[in-house]
């Protein structure tokens, strides 16, 4: 197996699999067309491929492939909303200190009877959770919030729009009991909650590539759309949400074409120390990236 190292930082850069011409199509398909990546755009596709693979005229080939993808072409213009700005607020200091949530829909009723998505995303890691639901009443939103908290802990600040289902008396009681500071967008404009609104846009675009003709299977495709988002570089933090939460990337189809040797741990303590060191060094630059980001 031939490997390639870039000219810059040759001593530090990880070796990449030098892909022969006969396998380029397989790599492109795995990193762009696979359901686990959901036809991402050029930027995310090229970063995903660049992590492990190299061939001559790499960027040109990837750009042409994405630009000529029939599935992507057929979906262009699916969402023409302008980029949603984030409501200005202090930069978070740690994961799940600040979370944004929103309700999306109604969609075509799924085979499971669901019509909406409740979408939640962490400001620090950009890690998302998505819940298909039958309705968006306060009681349903409360159950989703408690499930989210059971996974990630109590949130310090929670952002949403001014919909009555998010700011009802019942919901406010939950916020008070848990000590959550609830904040609303500056207006009814969805752009006031930009962090989650851009996730909504990406999620809907991904689902549009995955669903069947009648769209009733969209619920079943949500996990794949989430996997694609969690394991893709996010511009504002310059890292993958899954890495910032778990300290590792998710195993994806390209890993079965070429995988780097995986470190083994003799005991849990060694893994714990390695994880702590890895996340400490990463978190040190995340806040700076967030402050510099326009998102």
Short structural description:
Helices cover 42% and strands 12% of the residues. It contains 10 helices and 8 strands. Strand 7, helix 6 and strand 8 (181-184) form a beta-alpha-beta unit.
Q: What is the N-to-C order of secondary-structure elements (H for helix, E for strand)?
A: EEHHEHHEEEHEHEHHHH
| Overall 3D shape | globular
Q: Give the beta-strand count.
A: 8
Main sheet, how many strands, which sense, barrel? 5 strands, mixed
Averaged pLDDT: 81
Overall structural class, as computed from helix and strand content, comes to alpha/beta
Just give the CATH class of the largest domain: Alpha Beta
- Number of helices in the DSSP assignment: 10
How is this fold's topology laid out?
Blueprint: E1 3-4, E2 16-18, H1 21-33, H2 42-50, E3 53-54, H3 58-67, H4 70-75, E4 98-104, E5 116-122, E6 128-133, H5 138-152, E7 157-160, H6 169-178, E8 181-184, H7 194-210, H8 218-230, H9 241-246, H10 268-292
Parallel strand pairs: 2-3, 4-7, 7-8
Antiparallel strand pairs: 1-2, 4-5, 5-6
How would you describe this structure to a colleague?
42% of the residues lie in helices and 12% in strands. The protein is α/β, with parallel strands linked by helices and 295 residues long. The chain has two domains: 3-76, Endonuclease III, domain 1; 98-255, Nucleotidyltransferase, domain 5 (2-Layer Sandwich), CATH 3.30.420.10. α6 links the parallel β7 (157-160) and β8 (181-184). Residues 78-86 and 187-192 have low confidence and may be disordered. Residues 91-249 form the Integrase catalytic domain.
């Amino acid at each position: 197996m031939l490997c390639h190292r870039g000219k810059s930082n040759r001593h530090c850069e990880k070796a990449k699999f030098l892909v022969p011409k006969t396998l380029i199509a397989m790599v492109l398909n795995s990193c762009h067309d696979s359901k686990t990546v959901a036809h991402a755009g050029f930027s995310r596709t090229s970063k995903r491929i660049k992590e492990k693979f190299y061939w001559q005229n790499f960027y040109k080939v990837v750009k042409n492939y994405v630009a000529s993808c029939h599935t992507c072409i057929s979906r262009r213009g699916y969402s023409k909303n302008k980029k949603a700005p984030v409501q200005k607020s202090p930069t978070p200091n740690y994961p799940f200190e600040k979370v944004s949530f929103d309700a999306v829909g109604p969609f075509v009723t799924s085979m499971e009877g669901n019509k909406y998505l409740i979408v939640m995303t962490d400001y620090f890691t950009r890690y998302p959770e998505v819940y298909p639901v039958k309705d968006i009443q306060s009681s349903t939103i409360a159950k989703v919030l408690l499930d989210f908290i059971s996974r990630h802990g109590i949130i310090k600040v929670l952002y949403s729009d001014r919909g009555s289902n998010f700011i009802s008396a019942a919901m406010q009681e939950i916020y008070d009991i848990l000590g959550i500071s609830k904040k609303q967008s500056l207006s009814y404009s969805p752009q006031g909650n930009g962090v989650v609104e851009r996730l909504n846009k990406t999620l809907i675009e991904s689902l549009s590539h995955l669903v069947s003709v009648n769209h009733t299977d969209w619920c079943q495709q949500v996990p794949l759309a989430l996997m694609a988002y969690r394991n893709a570089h996010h511009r504002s933090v310059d890292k993958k949400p899954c890495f910032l939460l778990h300290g590792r990337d998710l195993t994806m189809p390209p890993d079965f074409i070429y995988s780097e040797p995986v470190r083994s741990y003799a005991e849990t303590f060694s893994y714990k120390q390695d994880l702590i060191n890895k996340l400490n060094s990463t978190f040190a630059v995340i806040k700076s990236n967030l402050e510099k980001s326009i998102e």
